[in-house]
Each structure stands twice: as structure tokens, then as C-alpha cells.
Amino acid sequence: MMERTPPPSLHDLDTRLREARERREQNTVEGGGSQSSLKGAPLAFRIGAELVAATVVGVGIGLLTDYWLDTAPWGMIVFFFLGGAAGILNVWRAVSGIGMAAGYQAPDEHNDVQNEGEQDKDEGQE
């Protein structure tokens, strides 16, 4: 019959995880390889897509408005600039992290300190 080898202990797993994290931190500090050179690529593609999509939607709405109200080319011009402004606003939101899903943005330290102070006051009043 086959002999079963016991699974590695959790301590061994913990040790291997720590070593892997240390290697990853060393790669990031030293500049890493190809992984660190593409670190900002997803954000760059998102910024480009936000600008292009908002401008295309603005121009589309402008063309439809011109067709519907017979105001060519003013609707397209106005909505081109509105679409561009919306694209810039979306880029600003993406870069600053506004509108991110819960848990993806670091908590604001200033608010945490205020909340702790308010909790201490509440506990003193009770």
C-alpha cells in the first residue's frame, strides 16, 4: 500500500510565506524586473480610455442633438467640450481614488484620529 506523507505544518507554510514576501519587497526596492516597469500601465490605459470614451459620447450626443433640433454644428461643438470636461473629471477621479469601491482606498488618518477622540468623549459621558 501507499504510504502517506503528512502535510507540511502551518509553521512551515508561514515561514515560506514570509520568505516570499521578503523577496517581493527586495524586488520592489531594487527596481525589480519587467514587473515594476509595467506597474502604471493599467492606470495609463484607463486614463486614455476615460478621455476617449467621454469625448466620443459627447460628440455622439452633440450629433444627435444637431439632427433632432437642426442646430448643426453648435450641438456637436458644445457637447464635444462637455464630453472633454467629463473625461478630465473622470481622469481626476481615477487618479485621486474618488469613487473607488469600499475597501480599496486607504483610510484617512485625520478622520480616524477625530473618530477616536469622539469615542473617548462618548465613553467619558456614560
Descriptive report:
With 126 residues, the protein is mainly alpha-helical. The protein has a domain at 53-97. The protein is 75% helix and 0% strand. It has 5 helices and no strands. The protein has helices at 10-30, 34-37, 41-69, 74-96, 109-125. The protein is elongated. The model has no long low-confidence stretch (mean pLDDT 78).
How is the quaternary structure best described? single chain
Per DSSP E runs of 2 or more residues, the count of β-strands stands at 0
Mean pLDDT comes to 78
Q: Choose one word for the global shape.
A: elongated
Supply Rg.
27 Å
List keywords for this structure.
mainly alpha
Annotate the secondary structure layout.
Elements: H1 10-30, H2 34-37, H3 41-69, H4 74-96, H5 109-125
Helix pairs in contact: 3-4
Précis, in short:
The protein is mainly α. Helix content is 75%, strand content 0%. It has helices at 10-30, 34-37, 41-69, 74-96, 109-125.
